[in-house]
Amino acid sequence: MALPPGFLDELRARVPISRIVGRKVVWDARKSNAGRGDWWAPCPFHEEKSPSFHVDDRKGFYYCFGCQAKGDALSFLREAEGLGFMEAVEALAAEAGMTMPARDPQAAQRLDRQTRLAAVMDQAVRFFRMQLSTAAGSGARDYLARRGLPQATMERFEIGYAPPGRAALFEHLRTAGVAEEMIDAAGLATRPETGSPYDRFRDRITFPIRDGRGRCIGFGARALASDAQAKYLNTRETELFDKGRSLYNLGPAREAVAKGAPLIVAEGYMDVIALSQAGFTGAVAPLGTAITEEQLRMLWRLSPEPVVALDGDKAGMRAGLRLIDLALPMMEAGQSLRFALLPGGQDPDDVLRTGGAAAMRQLIDGAVPMARLLWQRETEGRVLDSPERRAALDKDLRAVLARIGDASLRSHYGAEFVRLRAELLAPARPAARPGGWAGGWAGGWSGPGRPPFNARGGQAARRPPPGAPLPSTRGSALAGADAEMEDRMREALILAILITHPSLVPGFEDDLEQLECRVPENARLRDALLRHAADGGDLRARMAEDVGPDLENLFAQSHVAYAPPVRKPDDSVVAQACLVEEVAKLATRRAMRREVEDAMHDITERADERLTWRLARASEAVHSAVRGPDEDSSDLGEDRNALLAILEQASRTHNPRKT
């Protein structure tokens, strides 16, 4: 439902965030200052003993200096208690004594009817639970005992038994005063064209299915008779139950994931129960069908990278590959799947029985990325001993890439396929030449004749291999950073300098508007800086009110805190010189990588194994060229031109008609 303007701001203003957070933490009396609304405690999101979790009532934000958790009262309710957005709004409104905005009459009627249907379902839960303890339920109890389910687990998951009588549940509910129409609407009975209604579930073990709000919306039921038409049977589609939009164990799993448990996607009810019993409480399962788009979106709302536990048989692998095909167009940066590949013929319950929780933990920790499973599917069983067969593989890989909707992610998948293809088709490496350049681009030039030429046509200088890091630089973030991390660090430094020296913003406004931030925190800081730079006054204070913890996190980074332009806010000359250098380096490096990626993509479409091997060496040269923090601009230009020259030469070698 839509909330009126200002409603959330009023909520946040009425309830001090410390009141919400205080239910989950114990405040540190020495560091906290209640009069100023300044509170400190051990973080509720990760295990620690020192109070690094900061809550500021005046700003309405919390921030952990240990795990970088941050947000406001609503986000705390969502993260700490596993609530959805509207559930968190309703909880905060109740705390503030505010009335939620009125829903439209039709929506209110639908909600009232769903509430009454959920009440009928709860009556059915209690009936089935009672039947499990009767003489008629002895067979169900024996089956559950063989599966190793103790009484506590059966109570936790509300497992029950539907007796074999034709209308045992129907008559029980009618006697309790439930209207026939409500029993039918809840999906608990089947009404034939002629004759009286009969129970949908008979002689089956029942598993209540609850939504994220804890309402029972349906049942899954396992037949005890070996000759039953369907081993598992779900509630039919109703006003409450849509199996394509529901997940088994959703509510408890959401709460567990909010506390740091991995989200595990299993195949069925018993797998989820076994996993939860072994301590993997963030387990869910679809309801007897392949995962749908809506279920996949639900999973990604719980965790950016769910682990799919595939049964170790051909059917399980086929299910995983179908899920990959479903996910490809929907993926975004930071949002994917990983796959725990179980031993052949085993499901999670089997793994736990034979190897215990440690064996399952090892499989989950070793879950493979989606790209690897996709590559395995495209290459498994292929013999790539001819140009035609290799070209067919390239065609199939391009078709896979075309299905990825996110352009950035498509580029990274393409780079991963190039790397894996190079590994698959790489010829034997040439031996080192005495006194010559060996090891390809990683350590020099291994081809015949002279080493590559520099931008002026002369022979490139031979550079000795880098030595071990100096003690003074070994701990530096730049020393160990890859290209992506270095970009983020440069973005942070540029933003920090402009915030510290707001008088420089007008001269760099165009660069700031075009700054492509690699992480959301930097993007929010950039946008806030553009919003407030022209206001005058204390820029840093206004940004603190706007973006809160993002600003604290920015200046807490060591390479920012110790940078001379940040430590010396009065020296605008040094700040401007540093800005010019950092902006230029960031733009040059990104442009350089884009050119090489484009060239590699174009050439790879018609590459054979030798060319792919050379491109892999060129890629290593890019990695080396863009990382050195101390090179001057002329070195960078020579590296760039030499690299592009070798790529162009490789292209001409493969396709002479282009010369």
Automatic annotation (TrEMBL):
Keywords: DNA replication, DNA-binding, DNA-directed RNA polymerase, Magnesium, Metal-binding, Nucleotidyltransferase, Primosome, Transcription, Transferase, Zinc, Zinc-finger. Residues 448-481, 622-642 are annotated as: Disordered. CDD domains: TOPRIM_DnaG_primases. It catalyses: ssDNA + n NTP = ssDNA/pppN(pN)n-1 hybrid + (n-1) diphosphate. Residues 261-342 form the Toprim domain. Binds 1 zinc ion per monomer. SMART domains: TOPRIM, ZnF_CHCC. It comes from the Bacteria. One of its GO terms (biological process) is DNA replication, synthesis of primer. Its EC number is 2.7.7.101. A zinc finger (CHC2-type) spans 43-67. GO terms for molecular function: DNA binding; DNA-directed RNA polymerase activity; zinc ion binding. The keyword RNA-binding does not apply. It is an enzyme of class 2 (transferase). One of its GO terms (cellular component) is cytoplasm. InterPro entries: DNA_primase_core_N_sf (IPR037068), DNA_primase_DnaB-bd (IPR019475), DNA_primase_DnaG (IPR006295), DNA_primase_Znf_CHC2 (IPR036977), DnaG_bac (IPR030846), DNAG_N (IPR013264), DnaG_primase (IPR050219), TOPRIM_DnaG_bac (IPR034151). Its cofactor is Zn(2+). Monomer. Interacts with DnaB. RNA polymerase that catalyzes the synthesis of short RNA molecules used as primers for DNA polymerase during DNA replication. Belongs to the DnaG primase family. Contains an N-terminal zinc-binding domain, a central core domain that contains the primase activity, and a C-terminal DnaB-binding domain. This is DNA primase. It comes from Rhodobaculum claviforme. The gene is dnaG.
